[in-house]
Amino acid sequence: MRITAEHGDLTRTGTDVVVNAANSTLLGGGGVDGALHAAAGPALLEACRRVRRTTWPDGLPVGEAVATEAGDLPARWVVHTVGPNRTRGQTDPALLAACFTRSLDVADRLGAGSVAFPAVSGGAYGWAMVDVARIAVGAVREWAARHPRSGIEEVRFVLFSAAALAEFEAALTR
Hints:
single chain; 174 residues; Leucine Aminopeptidase, subunit E, domain 1; six-stranded mixed sheet; 19% strand; globular
């Protein structure tokens, strides 16, 4: 599996899967979540409402992941995951790592060959970017080692800021 980091706009990423740093309602929000919902159009919101009606009526738990269609995005699917909110006391690194591994589990079941991640929990949820990068890269590498026959050939961390990119590039060289 090739793992890279790049500065870019997740809403324009043409991978099979883009991962949404969602809130538990799955009904849109700020940051990455708001940007993906705005770019995807109403089809993404309707797909998320369907998930709430059928699979996760109480909302998506922290560390879990679920897929929907991607609406008007260039990706085929959106995998939504809820990161731990450090400002609310959710400080367990295993919860953050689960966001990446569960998202890869879902993407693999979909038959995806490529996945793009944002820096889950690295914005308003208060995690230091250096920690997000270290945990994310480690989780993806561990997942790849445990799933050598996976069809996922590429994981891209698509990061909105130069500072986030620098942290992920450093984590990738370790």
